[in-house]
Amino acid sequence: xxxxxxxxGTSVGSAEAIQRVANIIINTKGDKVVVASAMSGxxxxxxxxxxxxxxxxDEVVKAFADKHxxxxxxxxxxxxxxxxxxxxxxxxxxxxxxxxxxPNDAYYKDLVTSQGERFSTLMxxxxxxxxxxxxxxxxxxxAGIAAVGLPLSGSADLVATANGMTMKxxxxxxxxxxxxxxxxxxxxxxxxxxxxxGGSDYSAAVVANALDADMLxxxxxxxxxxxxxxxxxxxxxxxxxxxxGEAAELxxxxxxxxxxxxxxxxxxxxxxxxxxNSFRPEEPGTLIHSLRKKGKGLLxxxxxxxxxxxxxxxxxxxxxxxxxxxxxxxxxxxNNIIIYSISTSLSTVAILLGNDDVTTVIRRLNEFxxxxxxxxxxxxxxxxxxxxxxxxxxxxxxxxxxxxxVKDVGANVEMISEGAxxxxxxxxxxxxxxxxxxxxxxxxxxxxxxx
Length: 451
Ligand code: ASP
Ligand code: MG
Description:
This protein has 451 residues and is of the alpha/beta class. Helices cover 39% and strands 23% of the residues.
């Protein structure tokens, strides 16, 4: 039985946190493979370093080293500290080299921002050793995590990673060694390529896939997926189990529990996934798997995504100009901008995207020759509501029920996306109404008795 266990930034954010996590690892039965993020705050610090190239390198290295050494000193002394320092200093020298390498290299930012994981994993692995367990700190390089894709938005090459890990990691397990592997990045052409912010969850899923693990555990600082954001809905409760599809939709459209890309690598191998709280290991968390169990309510969860905008592009009879629709989407895609929803009519195309992306998209759309686009209207300050439930779309009258709850609070529905996924119904409302909408849906179809 192989369990891949992933710990996020707060779970390895201090000496106490690392010690807590080490106990969780030790108390888990069977073979264990650990994947960890950088200590909390470290990746943001590194992004700041890349964004302000004028900073003094010595100061940057010192601040970075101090934060880790301070935690290490609380855990190690004597011989084990000396051994730790030796490995730490080697990694610190590479860190300095990384910062001082060519900032014009397309993958410079990947190289620098992925440094934090090399240090958190080293500390965790050493602490396991101190507790009397054999462990080894591996990097994506030494574990064989292969990546493909563009700077800052890599994906794993699952086949190459499986080959790499079969050679480099599997043999460790049969010797009872606990590998502690860096999350967040893989290797493309010999250099780091990151998987996007928060990408360590995805790394762990990739590792689980590569090793054909029996279970993936994502240890974070919340109890699991909730029926709604507990900051908005006081009686929101934790969800015991859900399907891969439901979790993927929720993660993508708002719930910040899990990186949305975590699901796919485990779903394709049907590896169950648990979201658990490293600060409350006695809690069972949320189990995500392929079995479907009917819940009692109509909905399982309601998530929201704020700060979105609807861009409505008008052009006479655009429906008869599919190549123009394709060009619009291409331009948006070229800037790597995510489209959350899209709908068309005879003379308009409406696109839902992040508020922050509006200026870029309008600039790109202005590249069309004069008159091709007649008008662009922007409706910013909207929120997406994502309703997730079992077989939502095959139940009769669901849409009517959901929109009744929306109408009850007087919110106008600005855009709808139904049918794209069979477990979710998504729609857009003005941002100032979104809390009322969620409260109404939650009271009626989750905490209430309505079916
Ligand atoms: N340390 C990286 C980040 O903060 C990756 C992760 O935390 O998952 O984005
Ligand atoms: Mg993180």
